[in-house]
Amino acid sequence: MHPLGLIAASVVERENLHILLQKGVSPHDFSLRPSDIDHLQEADIIFWGGPHIEPYLSGFARRWPDKVWIDISSFSELAKIKDPHYWMSVPATLAAQKVLADTLGKDSSDFQRRVEAAVEYSDRVLEPVRERGFFVFHRAYDHWVLERGLNQVGAFTLTPEQKPGMRTVQLMREQLRAGKVACVFREPEYSPALVVTVVGDLPVKHGELDPQGAYADLSRDGYAYFLTEMADRAANCLTP
């Protein structure tokens, strides 16, 4: 996945890094192609999201135990909650990146400094809007929301494949009418039709968050930029 590629790119040269899920492709509806399996066979180290978020890799992890498999979800004890989007948790990310760096015989301290600076920046720009409520498109941001102390009121859907029921839609519209929601966030991979249907003509700001971080390049500071850009987008939409 691209966000894991952003983490790996901190210590892996671009020519040695292959991303199975390219930008804009969601792990929720992805299936491996024969060429993807070839890339897995050729790889020495596979940095992945774990069996819950990338179930299509689980069988290969059992089949090829001689390869180095670094599963970011194995660092779940460092996160405050159990949610499969562990690249959204800074402690889990730092720990997983360190294992990758150590495996390659490289230093992880530069990545840690960049991420810590991104967290400091994020907290600074988000401080004025921490109490302002918002809806996200789907439940991919829980680690980020909790670690940054934000007020996520709800999500349009648990996963992109599931549409909310009428009761959920009615509750969300009641929250919108009551002024409890300052911004609704869509995602670039999915049609905004669901968001438009729920919000209708109610006066609430719209923004865009991308849990895949497609806007960030695979570079040494790509993951840090992913964090700061997400903070900027949230702050811009939540600011009155």
TrEMBL record:
Keywords: Ion transport, Signal, Transport, Zinc, Zinc transport. The keyword Zinc applies. The keyword Transport applies. SUPFAM superfamilies: Helical backbone' metal receptor. InterPro entries: Bact_metal-bind_prot9, ZnuA-like. Pfam families: ZnuA. Belongs to the bacterial solute-binding protein 9 family. This is High-affinity zinc uptake system protein ZnuA. The lineage of its organism: Bacteria, Pseudomonadati, Pseudomonadota, Gammaproteobacteria, Oceanospirillales. The gene is znuA.
